[in-house]
Amino acid sequence: MKRFFVFVSLAMTLTLVRAQTINVGTSTTSRTDVFGNRTTTHRNQSGMTTGTSTTSQTDIFGNTTTTHRDQYGRSVGSSSTGRTDIFGNTTTTHRDQYGRSTGTSTTGRTDIFGNTVTTHRDQYGNVTGTSTTSRTDIFGNQTTTHRDPFGNISGTSTTSARDIFGNQTTQQRSQNQNTSIWTW
What we know:
Layout: H1 2-17, E1 21-29, E2 38-43, E3 49-55, E4 64-70, E5 75-81, E6 90-96, E7 101-107, E8 116-122, E9 127-133, E10 142-147, E11 153-159, E12 168-175
Antiparallel strand pairs: 1-2, 1-12, 2-3, 3-4, 4-5, 5-6, 6-7, 7-8, 8-9, 9-10, 10-11, 11-12
């Protein structure tokens, strides 16, 4: 009987520390074309294209604009990244298809550990989450951990090194928050 309770306690403890992630899709960025543009193709977990993001070359003011489109080629919004300010921060302003601001993402300078933190805010300036990008590992991969406004991990994005064709793939995973503590 004693062994039974030890086994049950161990099973419950393992369930508590079990972290599940769910594949939610990939984003593949092509090499820069002759016009200085880069296109990222977004796919869901089934491999179907859900949209594209085309990033232009930097303009004379130091800004870069990314145009987001759905799977049918319709514009769904844009993101404009300004030049780095005197504090080492870079801000990206996100807009919907009508040009209205939907929020910002501000990336700070790299810390002493090689990590970079991006703070996301909505159109009212409220923090909606953060993304912490680690330094590149020995395999050429870079992982970003996404957190909600309360600091809980909501998912990760792992970007691989460029392949021989100049393409780079990012694997997105979401954190499963529905793991039952009392699973037997």
